[in-house]
Amino acid sequence: FDPRHCLGTHCYGFPKTGPHRLRFLLQSLADLRETLQTRGSTLVVRKGKPEDVVHDLITQLGSVSVVVFHEEVKE
């Protein structure tokens, strides 16, 4: 989770992730984790700036050869 998504937007000051969107996201992640566990896998969820969290996770794992990500489309 990127905490910057809970801050106001630059245009109107509304949070990018409000309570309803956050609830949906948490429920979706819980469902994904459950589905992965039934298939013998798991889901890692971290909170922080992605550029920091991914770096720390790679350092912890030590044997990462590929990192794939999705960049949000900006209007």
TrEMBL record:
Keywords: Chromophore
Keyword Cell cycle: no
InterPro entries: Crypto/Photolyase_N_sf (IPR036155), Cryptochrome/DNA_photolyase_1 (IPR002081), DNA_photolyase_N (IPR006050), Rossmann-like_a/b/a_fold (IPR014729)
Coiled coil: none
Annotated Photolyase/cryptochrome alpha/beta domain residues: 1-75
BP terms from Gene Ontology: photoreactive repair
SUPFAM superfamilies in UniProt: Cryptochrome/photolyase, N-terminal domain (SSF52425)
GO molecular function: damaged DNA binding; deoxyribodipyrimidine photo-lyase activity; FAD binding
UniProt cross-references to Pfam families, sorted A to Z: DNA_photolyase
Entry-linked PANTHER family: CRYPTOCHROME (PTHR11455), CRYPTOCHROME DASH (PTHR11455:SF22)
Protein name, per record: CRYD protein
Species in which this protein is naturally found: Crypturellus soui
Organism classification: Eukaryota, Metazoa, Chordata, Craniata, Vertebrata
Gene: Crydash_0
